[in-house]
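Methods — Computational structure assignment.
A single polypeptide chain was analysed. Its primary sequence is given first, followed by the predicted tertiary structure written as structure tokens.
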Amino acid sequence: MADKTKTGDYFNRPEKLGAWTGFKQFLWNPETKQFMGRTSGSWAKILIFYIIFYVILSAFFVALFLIFTSTLKDGRPKYELKESLIGTNPGLGFRPMPPESNVESTLVWYEKQNTDYWVEELDKFLKGFNPNDGKSRIDCKKKKPDQGESCEINLNAFSPCTSERKFGYPEGRPCIFLKLNKIYNWLPEYYNQSSELDPEMHETLKSHIKSRESSKKDLNVVWVSCEGENPADIENLGNSISYYSLGSEQGFLGNYFPFMNSEGYLQPLVAVQFSSVKTGVLINIECKAWSKNIVHDRSDRRGSVHFELMVDEPK
């Protein structure tokens, strides 16, 4: 066994340094020529390693990005209609929406003396349909747009659901605007013959279609109907429901379809005015869009939209 009393058989305890002295030595050790614990050669190796690592990582990311973008189509989705996640069954949306503080709500609730929020929301929404963008748009009541063209939206067509009339809210005759969700390249299959009408259609809508058919008016329309969801809602909503749109009176004109992501495209709207709402009562309303290839499912809100309406008298 080695003689442990020999000084050469052991490491000497390092000299105890003060905090500042130790820190200076960590930054630069003149004896070992180390900067922050590494020699210049060690720093060079680690720097080269990370340069190569990040160059390869960046090249890998760029390659994946280029591969991904090469699979996309210019101005159109890669997967369309049945191949896409949203499928071929458009839903309906409505405006105005409740405040963001109650984002999950679908309740339009106001007092006749306090309508500012709802009127302002509709003004903001409709501002996007009268853009000052210099785009040339055509009157789609007269002709179907050619490729690259888009339809104009004449807001006066929705009268009396206009900003000047405050959309009927102070009178207790509120207007709700409906829009059909955009699905690229989707074409409606129209109910353009009264003999083919869905038996579940509201009788008022059936009569409207039959009257247009007898007048030989355009029936290439995605029709719209609104009614109370339950018998009590139907009674409280009343029978005075009016529809205002561009040329079709109760639906979305067929010349607006299909949506092809044309520059300056404006989606069609339908304004629905409820003129005989019973005040102080919450009313559940369901609006449906009608074409042969729109399936209705109340639980999933397919082909329809649900909202509640409540109009209070001033206190």
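Note: The longest strand covers residues 304-312.
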